[in-house]
Amino acid sequence: MQLMSNVVLESLLHPLAEFYKPSFVEEIAINHAGQVWLRLHGARVPWVAYDAPALSKQYLIDLIHTVANIYDRPFNPQHGIPVVYATLPGNHRFTAIAGPNVQYDEHDITGGVALNIRGGGAADTSFEKYHLQHGKELLRVKPRENIRPDDPYDRLMSAINDGSPILISGATATGKTTFLNHMLTLINTNSRVITVEDAREIRVPQKNRVHFVLSRTEQSNDFNYARLLDLVVRMTPDVIIGGEISTDNAAVLWEMLGTGHDHFYTTIHAESAEAAYAAFADRILHTQPAYNRTDLITEMHKKIRVVQLSRDGALRAVTEVL
């Protein structure tokens, strides 16, 4: 029975195998039907897109259902768990989601599909690949000196350029989402962006993107923020955009911020930069009371830059950059 299942799976995977099996491919990502992105080992521009008409939405959903059945994983996008994890033949790690929690664009009326398959291993698996050699100092990758320039504009641009997490704070109608949308135009166009929202508002100019939606009012399946955290870190993002911080998502967004990914951006309702740190901490404590509030705020000061927006009538302005 298992042999027959493997034969069926290998046959079904055939249209994808030409993309993920070559040794120079580290990972493939599908953000919507008909296109596949390849992440190449050691490439200066790691992600390369290819049109793949054979990878239709129905084919991808059928594939996820088949993987779920063979590996005895629950999969019910509408009323159960919409995510499937498995290890395919050849030690390829499979991550997929389908249904209303994925919305690439306005065409995903009933929900979309997103899928990642990581390769079985790089051709060079030596320590030298990781720049670990006897008698040599460890390589510093993207070192951050935590320098905050005197000029607020320079502080913001420095944070964007070095990938520091940024919290955009402001009251209602201060333009937080619009400001965030503009910030995204300053990010490398080759970046892979993943957004987490309760409604699709963020406009991402980068083509290699995935949008996850967790509605506060219309959620009908078993997809929650805890499951979302596991999914996002497996999708290899270069940029993570968190939705507006609430009591439901604050703890998970804080965990995401600690996963080591650059360019983590999110928004919060607060009247000042200091109040933004406090509000973030208080929302975390709502679901994770074991944290120490003072320690949380101190850690946030070290990790997160805050951009405060204020409004007076039609006037909107950045009033603080910490």
Describe the secondary-structure layout.
Blueprint: H1 2-20, E1 25-30, E2 35-40, E3 47-51, H2 57-70, E4 83-88, E5 92-99, E6 112-118, H3 152-162, E7 166-170, H4 176-184, E8 193-197, E9 209-213, H5 225-234, E10 239-242, H6 250-257, E11 264-268, H7 273-287, H8 293-303, E12 305-312, E13 315-321
Helix pairs in contact: 1-2, 5-6, 6-7, 7-8
Write up this protein.
The chain has 8 helices and 13 strands. By secondary structure, the chain is an alpha/beta fold. The mean pLDDT is 91.
Tell me the span between the first and last alpha carbons: 61 Å
How much of the sequence lies in strands comes to 15-25%
Largest sheet: 7 strands, mixed
In which range does the helix fraction lie?
A: 25-40%
Give a summary of the structure in a few sentences.
With 322 residues, the chain is of the alpha/beta class.
List keywords for this structure.
322 residues; alpha/beta; 6-stranded antiparallel sheet; 8 helices
